[in-house]
Sequence to fold (241 residues):
Amino acid sequence: MTRRHERDDVDQVLTSYFQAEPLPEGFGQRLARRAAELARDRDRLLERLAVRATARGVTAIRPGRQAEPEGAAARRWVERARLELGEYLAGKRAFFTVPVDLTATPPFQRKVLEAARSIPFGQARPYAWVAKRIGNPRAVRAVGTALGTNPVPLLVPCHRVLKSDGGVGGYIFGTRAKSRLLKLEQTTPVLEGCTSTRIVCRVGCAHGRRMRADNRVIFASVEDARSVGYRPCRVCRPAAA
Fold:
């Protein structure tokens, strides 16, 4: 057998090995139905959440019926919060721009919540880490209590705080919801760049929404984006996140 025939045989074997298997009949329809079901679940969840706000920002997110906000500023924050929460739950947002108003929160709890807000999207920390972060390493139980009464869950990501043994721990919406939120963040891209503008944004940035699908590229870090000539967006500021 000649070397040419040997190469042809090898090519044929490799082509056969890596050839994609045909999808099962009806797979596309089942996938579309599942996507529609998830969208309906997300919409039902949002309908069951009541968002309250002041002129400073969002003060509470709780199960219940949405009440009419008092004042134009509060209405604007409620509308933005509901919009961004929907995008987040759909895997289209990796950060929130709507402000939170924690002025009515006790000082200790406010420190705990601010520490939880510093945990990056898609990551998790133990309760002991939060206790050390606020300068009170022995207050692990108190930290758990403060997070358990978080007035603005999701916006302040207390779901990113776990038990020291890796267990999920408690959550205001239940442990199943906490696990699903953690999985959602693990599968949601954090950074996306535009090949035409050479700008990298956090997923959910208004500039990113204007990117064409064929111009969008995902990055693991700002450093990776910079290494190939991209610059951080000045609006969502991914380098400072």
Summary: The first strand starts at residue 49 and ends at 53. DSSP finds nine helices and eight strands in the chain. The longest helix spans residues 27-47. Residues 191-240 form a domain with the DNA Methylphosphotriester Repair Domain fold (CATH 3.40.10.10).
